[in-house]
Each structure stands twice: as C-alpha cells, then as structure tokens.
Amino acid sequence: MTTLGLILVLAFTGGIIGFISLFSLVAIWTERKLSAHMQDRLGPMETGGWHGWAQTVADMLKLLFKEDIVPDAADKPLFKIAPYIVLSGSIAAFAVLPFGAHLIGSDLNIGVYYLIAVSSLVVAGILMAGWASSNKWALYGAMRAAAQMISYEIPVGLSLLVPILIFGTLSMQGLVSVQSGGFWHWSLFSHPPFGLIAFVIYFWASLAEVNRTPFDLPEGESEIVAGYHVEYSGMRWAMFYLAEYANMFLVSGVAVALFLGGWNAPFSFLEVSHEASPLWHNLLGFFWFSSKAFLLVLVQQWLRWTLPRFRVDQLMKVCWKVFLPFSFVNILLVSLWVALSGK
Amino acid sequence: MSNHQELNIPLGATPEKIMQIAAEFEDVHGETMVLQMGPQHPATHGVLRIELETDGEVIVKGTPHIGYLHRCFEKICEQMTWPQIVPYTDRLDYCSSMNNNLGYVLACEKMFGIEVSERVQTIRVLVSELNRIASHFIAIGTYGLDIGAWSPFLYLIQEREHILDLFDKLCGGRLLLSYIWIGGLSHDLPDGWLSGVREYLKYMNGKIKELNDLLSYNKIFIDRLANVAIIPAETCIQYGLTGPNLRGAGVDWDIRKVEPYSGYENYEFDVPIGTGEVGTVGDCYDRYMVRVREVEQSLRIVEQTVDKLERLPGDDVRAAVPKTFTRVAPGEIYDRTEHPKGELGFYIVSNGKGKPWRLKCRAPSFSSLSVLPEIAPGLLIADMVALIGSIDIVLGEVDR
C-alpha cells in the first residue's frame, strides 16, 4: 500500500468515527426529545440553552471522567476488550456503506456479503461482555443475544438477497446506481410487492439485530436489568451505547442502500449530475443518504417508545415461523420473475 | 409444564449404575443455577428478593424472601393511642393510604360504636374510590413498564397526578394522607373541590379507551400475558388471594357488594371478573384487565358520590370524633374492607385502655405474594416479571 493510500484510509476511518460520534450525539438527543414529547414530557431543556441540545455532549464528557470499574471476579482481558470489539464490528461495517457516489470506504464486489459477515462481530463482543462480566444477569443477556442472532440473521440475509437477485450484483455502489432516476426505480417499488415484503422483513429483523424494542431482549432492563452491559461503567459503557447507535444507523443505511435508492434523490430534478459538479453530486448524495437513514432511525425510536417487549420464545417464533417462510417464498417468486423476464 | 425432572434410580442399582444414571441425567438436564432476583431489581416493585432456581431461563423453583421493609407496624401500634395509629396505616400500602385509613377507622368505629353522618360516609367513599383509581393506575402503569412498554406508565402517572393534586387541596398531603379520622374526617371539603372532581371525571372521559388501544389490546402485550402464570380460583382461595387477583380468576367476590360498608349498597357499580377473554381464566391478562375495568367502575362511583354530595346539606365532619379515647370499652373486632390490592382486614383487641392491646393487620399483598412459589415453577424469567406485576404487591404492606 502506498503512503497516500494509507493516509486516505486513515482519513476515511477518522471520518467514519467522527460521523458515528456526531450521529450518536444527535440521535441520542432526538431519542430523548422524541420519547419525552411522546410521553407528555419536555425532555432535556437546560444544558446548552436551546432545548438542551448539549445534554448528550455533557453526558459524554461525564462518562469520560467516570471511574472505569472492572469487577474482581471478571475475566479481565475479555471484559476490557469486549466493548471495543462491539464497536469495531459496527465501524468495520461502515466501510461499505455508500454515503455518496464516491463517498464509500471500499466498494467491494462482495459488499453485502462482507457487511453481513462483519456486523455479526457485534454479537461476538456482546457474548464476550456477558461471559466475562461474571454476572448471571449479564450471562442471560449474552445467551439471549446469541439465541437472537441465529434467529434474525437468516431472515436478514434472505431479505437482502431480493434486491441482489433483482439487480444481479453484490457491490453496494452497483446496487445503488441502478436505482437512480426517481423513487419508482428503488427496489422497494420497482418489483412490487416483493421489494416491499423484503424491506418490511429486513426492517423488523434488523430491529432484533440492533437490540431495540420490541426485540430488546439482551438488554431487557425490567427483566434482566440491562443484560450484558450491567457491569460496565464509564467509557466502556459509553462504547456499548455508541455501538448501539452506530448499529442503528448501519442497519438503516443498509436498508436505504438496498431498498430506498441509497444516495439517489426521490426525484431526478433534485439531483446535480456528476458531470455538472462532482462535489455537489456527492454532497447531495450524502444528504439524501443520511436523511433517509435518519428517518428510519427515527422510526426505530418511535417503535421503541410505543411497543412492549417480546418474550424469548416469541422472538424465535416470529423469526423462524413468520419471517423465514415469507422470505423463502419471496425469494422464490423474485427468482421466477427474474428468470422469466430474461435479464 | 414444568421442565423440572426427577432423577429416577431403580431399586437395587449398583453404585456404578447410579453414577451412570446421574451422569446421563446431568447431560440431558444440566445443572440448575440459583439466581437472586432483587432486592434491587426493577421488576420486583420494591425491596423484594426472589431466590430463583433456574434451568436455562426456565424457573424450577422460586422462593420470595421478605422483610427488607419491616417496620414493626403491629408492635408500634400497641404503644400508640387509637387516633395516633392512623398515620401509621398510611404507610402500609403507600399507594392507597385513603383505603388503609378507611379500613382501620371503620374497625375502630365498629368497636367503639361510633356512627358518622351520611355526608361523611359519602366523602369517605369518594376519596377512597379516587385513591383506588390512583393505586390501579400505578399497578397498570408499572405493569406496562415490566412488559417493556414505557409510555403508558408516564401517561398514567400524569393521570394519577391530578388525583394527587385533588388530595393536596383536600388535606395537604399527596401520598400519606391521614384524612379519615375515627369518627369523621380531618377537614371538610374545600370550596370548589367537588367541581375539581367533576373536571377530573370529564378529563378522564375516553382515557381508558386510549389506554386500551395503546396497551391492553396490543398484540405483543396480549401474547406476553395470555395463558401465562394461571392462578386458578381454587388456588386463589387456598392461598387467600383477594381483590382483583381473585376476581381475575373468575370469582365474583367484592366486599363492597357482599358486606357493604360506608353506604356502598347505595351506589350502582359492577364487579368485573376475569373471563379468559384471550386465554385461560386466571391468567395475567385477566388480572390486568380486571384492574382496568375496576377503574371504570370506580369512576362511576365517584360520579354518583359527587351528585349525592351536591344534594346533601353541609355538616360538621368532625361532629362524631370522640373527645377522648381513654375510656373505651374492652373488646375485640375483626373488620375488613375492599382495598385496591384485596381484602384489608384489621383484628384489634382492646383491653379498655387508651391503646390497642394487640393489632393484627391482614395485608392483601402478603397473601398475594404467598402464592408465588406455587405458580413459579415452569415459568420463564420474563413470565416471572409478568407474574409479579400482575399480582400487584406493594412491599410496604407485605413487610409492614
């Protein structure tokens, strides 16, 4: 690798980490405000002046200065690295997220495959954290996370196959660029109703992936008191928190890239062509991608503050007996469509 | 239902054979794990510790350990004069102190032969029904919280807040009221208080439907509660479960109907019972739904009492309060009232002095909790949370 290449990689990694931190600060604030207004409250109003915008910044600073407690009975090395493995899993997956026509870490020809593989690292970190904490509640959280993973990974993978079958590529940029030219070209709408079914299945299963209500079983604060991160404090706990929000953006970003046209605008007159100005083309692409993904994040937050939580066996039932058969039939029909249309 | 398997060793087995059977048993069933749920756990509704023996997430045995909030209520009462005990009853079930006051005061009045006016009785019914609503809102809201739904809890806290504001205007207290005195009430109704209650009734119009749409009829919520932790009527009676827990098992038993006190026979209200509408009679959903419907009935009673109080002429609410309690006749009494948690009974023995010789409080939460070891085996940990929430215990009353 050349020096320039190395510098670019480092710059991009820095950019991703910066983006994740900034996004988390904003998303935590919106979640607080959204939940507050849903519950007849105001939420943070003081810190920073306008509607408590600096509350999450202040909290982050507080977490930085907090004591990092490692339980005596914990498996110390595992306990210490677990949060970083969780976070690095999501950061690594950001590498193939297409923020714009050229704003992508690496446009791998097996982008989607890489993404599914790398984002599973998060669960390995959660298992580690739960096991190493030497706490029974944390162990339950870890075991639930493992059981949950094998349940949602298959519907997620199968529903992601639908746009791949339609467009015939695994590359993220390849998938996004064929969806250009208005929202009716997005895979959500272009092959009705298969795109829509796949999107719905993906979205629900991805809620299980990011441990959000109604699938927040590994955390389940009223049952297993915060689950796998019950023993964590300070910055290590913040890493879990950061990873949770990074993951929320990640799964939304994947949904946007594969189903909602990625960085393409809903109408082509809202775009600047690459020939006219490459800079504005990328910046507008970034805008559309981020706002679509953020919209999905808001939907996740909305669901969280509305729905109760599933039980473990009910989650399995939903994933194996509902999502899985539907995904299979969906794939079969899409394959037929693709085969018959002779692409 | 229970996954707990017994180890079967045939008679006359050799030690090698026994070791082999034991090893196979452990391979198949594994070892159980002891898990301490509480005393600091968000779903135990206070300082309750439940020792769970679990096989994976399935509970093999559940043993509640109580006493973290023991305050020697009954012993303290032996040192106190009769009216001094009223504030102590506030702290039994701190979510419904009006009903506690009423239970103790009625027992005393029966023993001393004190008659209170119809207006005082009506005000007592009004405030204790308001407090029943407040208590049920806490039960329903925290139950939603246990199941993972956050927002209904905060909505119900908001609606309870209006009741606490009314109490604040009435007697200056919000949680611990000591409003009902032996022989009367501590204060008369302030000016315009009844119109405040009317406004509250208007405000509550349609709120229960909103709650039902958001929580009660939510598919996930129903799935979590239907057919979970069934307590059959027979078990309820054996363990002394009363109130909404007993009615949830389909038994039509309400002290307000079967032994009316304070003029409850004059009001029109229904006694909701569990019908197993989404599962089996006596499951968590039935117990939950009985509480929701009782709130509706209590609102009906409140409306009737307000109508009645507006007709009745004003009188002195302290008219029947005895000047002194030093010369009461010796005797004993057991009196029970319908408390939001169940039957609240007071057994009081007086030896003719100014203090009770012995006071025994029959706390409904204590009996409700006692059924837990019977129901726990075979539940998942998540179901355990659903069970504890559905029997609606308050540890202040369990431990006393």
Explain this structure.
The complex is a heterodimer of chains A (343) and B (400). Chain A has 343 residues and is an all-alpha fold. Chain A has two domains: 1-65; 71-341, no CATH class. Helix content of chain A is 67%, strand content 0%. The radius of gyration of chain A is 20 Å and the shape is globular. The model of chain A has no long low-confidence stretch (mean pLDDT 84). Chain B is an alpha+beta fold and 400 residues long. Chain B has a single domain, classed as Cytochrome-c3 Hydrogenase, chain B (Orthogonal Bundle). Chain B contains 17 helices and eight strands. Chain B has helices spanning 15-29, 73-77, 85-90, 97-112, 118-147, 151-171, 193-204, 207-216, 219-225, 233-239, 244-248, 255-258, 284-311, 364-370, 372-375, 381-391, 395-399; strands at 33-37, 49-55, 58-65, 180-181, 184-185, 331-339, 342-350, 356-362. In chain B, the strands form three sheets. Chain B has a three-stranded antiparallel beta sheet with strand order 1-2-3. In chain B, strands 6-7-8 form a three-stranded antiparallel beta sheet. In chain B, strand 4 and strand 5 form a beta hairpin. In chain B, helix 5 packs antiparallel against helix 6, helix 5 runs antiparallel to helix 16 (381-391) and helix 6 (151-171) runs antiparallel to helix 7 (193-204). Chain B starts with 14 loop residues before the first helix and ends with a helix. The model of chain B has no long low-confidence stretch (mean pLDDT 86).
What are the secondary-structure elements of chain A, in order, as H or E? HHHHHHHHHHHHH
Low-pLDDT residue intervals, each spanning 5 or more residues of chain A: none
Total helical segments of chain B: 17
- The total strand number of chain B stands at 8
- Which pair of protein chains has the largest interface, and what are the residue counts? A-B, 28 and 29 residues
**Average pLDDT number of chain A:** 84
* N/C terminus separation of chain B: 35 Å
Mean pLDDT across the residues of chain B is 86
Overall spatial form of chain A: globular
Helix percentage range of chain B = 40-55%
Query: Based on the structure, what is the oligomeric state of the protein chains?
Result: heterodimer
Task: Work out the radius of gyration of chain A.
Answer: 20 Å
Structural class of chain A, by secondary structure, is: mainly alpha
